[in-house]
Amino acid sequence: MNSDDKGRGASGSESATLLSVRGLTKRYPNALALADVDFDLRAGEVHVLFGENGAGKSTLISILAGANHPTAGEILFRGEHVRLESVHDARRRGISAVFQEFSLVPQMTVAENLFLGAELTRGGFLDKRALRRNAEEIIARLGFPLKPGQTVLHLTRAEQQMVEIAKAFRSNLSVLILDEPTASLTDRETEQLFKLIEQVKADGVGIIYITHRLQEIRRIGDRITVLRDGRYVATKDARTVSEGELVNLMTGRVISEIFPTIRTERGPEVLRIEGLTTARGSPVEASIKVHAGEVVGLAGLIGSGKSEIMRAAFGLETVTAGRITLKGEDVTGLSPRRMMRRGMFYIPPDRRDEGLVMIRSCRENMSLPSLDQPPFSLGRFAINRRGEARRANELAERMNLQPRRIERSVDHFSGGNQQKVLLAKSLTRAVDVYAFDEPTVGVDVATRASIYGFIRDLCEAGAAVVLISSDLPEILHLTHRAYVFYRGRVQAELAGDEITEENLLRHFFEREAA
Fold first, then answer.
1. Do the beta carbons of residue 273 and residue 321 sit within 8 Å?
2. CATH 1.10.1200.10 describes domain 265-343+430-514
3. Which residue blocks in 350-494 are alpha helix, DSSP H?
């Protein structure tokens, strides 16, 4: 470690080292995922791992969680050399991981999932009463709104994330590994998680935390280690290192290069939503309008209605009142297929559940929205495989897909590259209105810059772009106009110099007097 390897544990001073790795290396047949990495975790600290998708973060934590094995190097736990044979072996030692990809059985209950692989038995049979009692104790300690008897299949993604987190607390903890744990949580649930982190820090638990959100690093981090291309770059004090320095360490770029300037030549109105109310009760009597050649931001807390209004416009939510007009035509209540045919495309925030078919190839995912038209179609029942492959290769090059392997299944790519495939789908047909719903969730800074450039290019080519985002800097730096939502209603419309952090936040939390 270099001289910047200074940080504070829960007590404010340097604490005992819980876990350390030296010269950790992981080779695959065609790739070097980790190369001679050093890393250590102290008791009572949050040590953030930071880096681009593909930097080696996931490989490192999979080794520390017992899910993978290094090619070379050593692991020391409480000063002793160990070989973590399996996830069960790691958990037995007090090392538990919450991965970004869930490992739940949908048909089982919350309680059954919490103790999967560590079932409580009595007389050779499952002790359901003890299972439920222990599950209730864990859930109560964490303060999560879960019931032990709920079937996981019927939980929201945020609730499933809570179940994953709760699984880590079924035994005594020494090391807790959290991989993008807030990606599916609301602001209130995120705050609850952060309070929980403070509690376990005070108990001497060391926490390895992966996030791409710089504000989270400031909020809970003690130290931050940057990886790039599978190699150790630096370790910094998370409370004093600047955002610009972190971005430079991670990518070699300065932060001013992340957000592009987007020119606007505002054209005719292409989308108008008037007095819209959905069956879910959010949004309520909401109205917005979007012109060609501009980026319109929709801001607000999670659940404020900012996502639901565009889902309703695209035909994914049932409209109970109001009107949607696209290029002068009343399209209220049309299906997503018919909306695409009329020139609107919606990119959902959850690429795994709604955006992509994970077990299919990049080529198939890219072409899926446009199989009814050239160059993908040879007629009503035939696909032009040659034309499909040619266009998919063109899109892979435009989106800088890494690696450039269109026949590879999407689930074998990093999160950032999966997001590129999702965005590429929108380029397979003529589109007048693009709606991007949280387009940079779970991607690194370099991929963010690429996505922002993609949005710029669409807007400057004359398209109307709606950007739905919970990330304030995206609204501040990318939009020409912004609507702020509050409890399902449009709280304010801001334009140009009015789009400031102060104005946005003021409308996030309070209603103006009538």
1. no
2. no
3. 362-367, 385-398, 415-424, 445-460, 472-478
Beginning with the edge strand found earlier in the chain, give each strand of the sheet holding 72-77 in spatial order. Answer: 31-42, 17-28, 72-77, 80-82
The answer to whether 144 and 67 are in contact (CB under 8 A) is no
Q: Which CATH number fits domain 1-92+218-257: 2.40.10.10, 3.30.450.20, 1.10.760.10, 3.40.50.300?
A: 3.40.50.300
How much is the pLDDT for 13?
41
What token pair was written down for 295? 């980026």
In contact, 452 and 432? CB cutoff 8 Å: no
Helix (H) or strand (E) run with residue 463 in it: none
One-letter amino acid at 421 equals: V
The whole-number pLDDT of residue 509 equals 67
Distance between CA atoms of residues 159 and 146, nearest Å: 7
The total number of residues written for the chain in this structure? 514
Contact at 8 Å (CB) between 273 and 288?
yes
User: Pseudo-torsion of CA 130, 131, 134, 137, nearest 10°?
Assistant: -120
Distance between CA atoms of 63 and 75, rounded to whole angstroms?
9
What's the pLDDT score for residue 9?
Answer: 45
Instruction: State the 10-residue block means of pLDDT for the chain, 514 residues long.
Output: 46 70 89 91 95 84 94 94 92 88 88 85 83 90 87 84 85 89 76 87 94 85 92 93 82 71 94 95 95 96 88 96 97 96 94 90 94 84 88 93 91 87 94 94 80 95 95 91 93 93 80 40
> What is the pTM assigned to this prediction?
0.65
Residue 441: closest CA among 400, 411, 466, 470: 470
For residue 103, what pLDDT is reported?
Answer: 83
The residue with tokens 């038995």 is 121
Sheet holding 344-347, edge to edge: 344-347, 433-437, 464-468, 295-299, 481-486, 489-495
- For 12, residues 6+ apart whose C-beta sits below 8 A from its C-beta are none
Name the one residue in this structure whose structure tokens are 């004093």.
Answer: 240
* pLDDT of amino acid 4: 52
Burial 1-27 (b: 16+ CB within 10 A, else e): eeeeeebbbbeeeebeebbbbeebebe
| pLDDT score recorded for residue 253 | 61
Amino acid 373: pLDDT: 87
DSSP secondary structure letter of residue 247 = H
The single-letter code of the amino acid at 93 is: R
Which residues of the chain does CATH 3.40.50.300 include?
A: 1-92+218-257, 265-343+430-514
DSSP-derived secondary structure for 316-374: SS-EEEEEEEETTEE-TT--HHHHHHTTEEEE-S-IIIII--TTSBHHHHHHGGGTTST
